[in-house]
């Protein structure tokens, strides 16, 4: 593929900088593009995306590599597709994963479209994941070799059309090796810390962000135990997630946790740690990486959060096109709004939104 024209998504961080360097080293015709995303009032915060400092750092890397670099403004699209969806789902009492939607609709939507408009053959990003093409020209998405950095979970919304136009150069690298390469090139971002949290919410966290940008006021409501007794008052459903212990109140004889959210009645349900065990969930619609539904006669691994450990599961068809995911051993913190991603060993089979979770009986 040497000589092919590619667009590298640059962020001013070490991963995308080394990604660009590797593509130049391998003889590709490289153009760097940074997407200018919506960041509200938090543009100057350390975790914000596309700050003036980050743009300058990416431009400096492009200068060292001798490649063209552009900034493309997608603030309005990002706000509508990612930020507004995050706010809407949070107001519904769900726990969304904005990175999943950003990858699906912004990076592999807006940016991939821009890549093709420029006549480039591939979009290249610094994600830690691997794409492999088999003899039947089916593209497989697999985990990166660095288990601490693997990002296959948030890429589970990609399809065959997107994967065949994508290159992940860092999938076979560990983070320590990436920093070494950055040092060798003299990049000032070589030891730049990894970004933390959501790029648009600011350093005060998502609860503060929602209190500022939510389209509806936070409604206080009852906190109940499983027997139905009212034991307190919550400050708004968006301030709580399943498995949470803080912010519930005191005076209980033993530690209590949020075990459910009754969205219809605007209530928090609390119980003991043992009550956080869930035996199954429904999820969907599923994006199947291969383009077709796999066999349900085999055992899969599932991740129910980006940083969660994989769990053994079996699958059943459920109503309304959803999939019932049944855990071999009960799990904690299965949360509607997050994404359930199915794996066989290190390969992503597909991902779908968690709709409902079911407690062990």
Key features of this structure:
361 residues, alpha/beta, Rossmann fold, SH3 type barrels, Elongation Factor Tu (Ef-tu), domain 3, 6-stranded antiparallel beta barrel, 5-stranded parallel beta sheet, 7 helices, 28% strand, globular
Give the arrangement of secondary structure elements.
Blueprint: E1 5-9, H1 14-25, E2 29-36, H2 52-65, E3 69-73, H3 75-91, H4 98-117, E4 122-124, E5 129-133, E6 139-143, H5 160-163, E7 166-167, H6 175-185, H7 206-213, E8 221-225, E9 230-234, E10 257-262, E11 267-271, E12 278-283, E13 287-288, E14 300-303, E15 311-317, E16 323-331, E17 339-344, E18 347-359
Parallel strand pairs: 1-2, 1-4, 2-3, 4-7, 8-11
Antiparallel strand pairs: 5-6, 8-9, 10-11, 12-16, 12-18, 13-18, 14-15, 14-17, 15-16, 17-18
Helix pairs in contact: 1-2, 1-6, 3-4
Number of DSSP-assigned strands: 18
Q: What is the CATH homologous superfamily assignment of the largest domain?
A: HUPs
Outline the biggest β-sheet: 6 strands, antiparallel, barrel
Pick out the low-confidence regions: none
What distance lies between the first and last C-alpha atoms, to the nearest angstrom?
55 Å
- CATH topology assignment of the largest domain: Rossmann fold
How much of the sequence lies in strands comes to: 25-35%
What Rg is obtained from the alpha carbons, in whole angstroms? 22 Å
Give the overall shape: globular
CATH architecture of the largest domain: 3-Layer(aba) Sandwich
